[in-house]
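U., I forgot to send this yesterday:
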Amino acid sequence: MATILVMDDDPEVRELCAMVLGGEGFDVVATPDARSGIRAARAEPPDLILLDWMMPEVDGLDALRELKSLRETAAIPVVMLTALDGLADVAIATMGGAESYVTKPFEPAELASLVRRFIAATES
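Result:
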């Protein structure tokens, strides 16, 4: 069973992701900030990370850069999950190493489908 790590400071987003992805059969680990998320990813590398951009202290873009620089987390696919929806934002996240980009609010079924595609691609 694949593990999805959700890093988001919004408890409702974490809960929604856990409900939707848990219902799809994924193990979901959710953290309220980037620091605890990076620690969780290093301790037990997940199969995919959903990462909010706008978080206090360490933002998602800095977390993305750190995740991609660490040996134990560099290969983990990261999907930015954020309200920032400008073309420049998408480009910055992609150049920083994000494999995909989902804007909030999102359709739960679309998020589940995206996660299933990423997990299927990594399992094959």
